[in-house]
Amino acid sequence: MKSATVSPIAGRGSVLLDPMVLICSLIAAASVAIAFSNTFYLTLFTFAVIYLIAAMGMNVLTGYMGIISIAHGALVCVGAYAAAIATVNYGWGFWPATLLATLTGMAFSILLGLPALRLSSWYFVLVTIAFSMVVPSMLVDLRAFTGGYGGVIGVPSPELGPLTGQGGFFIILLAFAAALWWIIANLVGSRFGFALHALRDGTVGAEANGVSSPGMRLFAFAFSGACAGLAGAFYAAAKVVVTPDEFSFEFSILFLFIVVLGGPGRLAGPLFGVLAFFVLPEIMTGLREYRMIVFGLVLLAFSVFMPSGLAGGLHEFLRGRRASRRRAQGAKEAAEAAKAAAGSPVTAAQIEGAALDVDGVSKNFGGLKALDGVSLRVDPGSIHVIVGPNGSGKTTLLNIISGFYPKSAGSIRMDGAELTGRSPVAIAGAGVQRTFQTPKLLGDLTLLQNTCFGAYTRERATGFEIALSLPRARRERTEILAEAHRLLGVVGLQDHADLPASELTHGQQRLAEIARALMAQPRLILLDEPAAGLSMGELDRLGDLLKEVRTLGITLVLVEHHVDLVANVADHVTVLDRGAVLASGTSADVFRNEQVIAAYMGGAK
Amino acid sequence: MLLEDFLALMVNGVALGAIYAMVGIGLNIAYKPTNVFNLAQGEFVMLGAMLGWLLLTYVGMPWVAGTLILLVAIGILGGFEERVAVAPHFRADSHHHGWLISTLAFSIIIINIADQVFRADPRFVPPIPGFSLDTIFMGPLSFNTHQVAVVALVVASIFGIEYFYRHTLTGKAISAVAEDRDGARLNGINPLHLTMLSFVAGGAYCALAGIIAAPLLLASTSLGLMLLVKGFMAMALGGVGSQWGTLIGGIVIGCIESISSILLTTGYRQLVLLAVVLLVLLIRPHGLFGKAPGRTV
Lengths: 605, 297
Known about the structure:
By secondary structure, chain A is an alpha/beta fold. Helices cover 58% and strands 10% of the residues of chain A. Chain B has helices spanning 3-31, 41-58, 63-92, 98-118, 145-167, 169-179, 181-186, 191-217, 223-238, 243-260, 266-283, and strands spanning 135-138, 141-144.
């Protein structure tokens, strides 16, 4: 099939020719060349690379997951002191001390993050401000251990075989930064990166897709803390002397500038950030006194006018130019691809759909009975539609089945196993996918990436395998990309695979959500008003698609108003009214039922 | 420890706590209709203190006149901040916490300009007229009348704020917006006006906190960040949105800080406070008196 052969990252065209990659490589090469031109620049760029390592870690937390931290500089400080004390006071070698610093940074970051696992992210901002104020004063107080104001003197530089001296140190740093870049690139292009994005956009959509929010947050805290600790060890070595004065509040804020202004949630963001907000100001020393005022103004302006930062702005610029060049040839390709995909089956493998038993489920919101003893049975591999007037409890029922609301009474069993009382994440993991009344796609990610995200619960490669791009992770990635392209073909969106999801029409977003749900190879799919806002053509496609999904064996539960669609696809219809089952049967039966007509038309009872 | 010493520390702690609570309440005021925490409000307190020094000590204006000018000026600054740093995020309807960055940026601008203008020396600001910083002894108790005035002012202001939210039309409208922004809009309330109003009020309230805190703490440009963190701790302990809870939280923080000042050095004191706040948030994520928000699917 045509679309499956397309290159995964850049869409059409080689990754190496992607202008963004090209620009970053040129900048990196130029920086290295300048660094080796004289010792001033070598020192400057040594620190730039150290800051880059720290900032890349923070980008995972602040950029990709959207949790703003002011404590990153303080964590670098903790790492620097850990390495300095281990080497100078206890005579450790540089590398074991670096490992210690990395682990220390990670531990402190996790500790700080624990309350943030359950709280809104602004709590974390203030907790981290408090932490960055505590660290320098504790360094003074723990005089016997940290040397007080005098600090720790004589931290050795790293050496590795022939790499010695300042030049060798710089090359070691470059290698570390490159490795970290590669690891982060692997992670953010995988289900981990998608999950981080999903959490930034809110926990509901992420949990419905099986992402454990505390687990991912803990991972982001640990990862960013480890990077800060690692950078701290190098910082101590580059400085030789560490003192509390260096780790002022401004030092902490600097990383925020680098990440947020460079381009949060973009691979190249920290690189641009370090060059623009560390290297450039260091060269323009005349401005030093007013630097923070200028930075503050720039930060304010960026947060309002260019929230995606330097890297994001450049990306948009490049995309705009490429798009206009491609538009002409794109239309022709698209028509061909649509033709090729039109007849393709949904999935090769048959799935054993789940049976769903809802038994006497009630839900009270305060005094309001949203559901009152609702029972229904969904046969495996059937399409069961729940209809009813507004406020009759349809969406509430879906929310209870998928674990977002606790029930007040009753039980829900999938193939005999109780679902109530389990978390949305656990229920998603058991093979239940759902969509929402307002599509919850990740607007910044491409349609293809959104679709791949659907496979979250069934991917087996561990974070470690993905980070290092080990064979199983690579194999799985290839399979999932091919599958995602194919499913996009099935819903008729294959031409839009490389578009950001936010640029799709409402109807396309709904179809994309169904493609994403199918990616999980679920046994039960819950669809909340899939036809709302669809055009006539899209409505026909939706009807065919639902029937195709049924032929695979997947059980479908729909909440839907659109009578034609219901009559077209439903095996069984349950009518809810004021939280109770009013009628149940085939669509022909229930739509002739006088009570149902009365409930919908508001006629006399 | 002697009883007299202990009581003196407690009095000091309560007065400090009342100031922390004022900062926390200022955050609450701006938060209520917006769900935005104005991170620049610590700097508004600092400006209240520093401009208080400028107008009252340096220029020598009468207290009431100087304070009024100050409240108006910083209230306007709060409104200006809302226009440039917060309103654009509401217009963009972004659910990312863009305001965290923009209000932080605003505070960075203020503090660095203030640093350039005032430099780092601490400065003296006179107490409220009719009150003084002279210690009065009453049995084992020792205190000064300014401390009493600070506590009384906070309590009175909480009564005033609660009355405003419950019994005035604007106050009710703000409560309605806090409850359901879209619902309030459908009832003809314009949330954007209330947002700006709340930022003006929050700014003025913080300025007042600054000018009455300055006689006890001395005015300096580093005051803002410290008070922002302590005010946040008071609010987080008490529960977001609860004024009385914030007052109790502030007093707890103030007393822990005051008592520990004879036992611990600066670093440990801050560490203890941070640990207390983290612990409370771990056990009760919405504070001692706060309500957990409902879930939205």
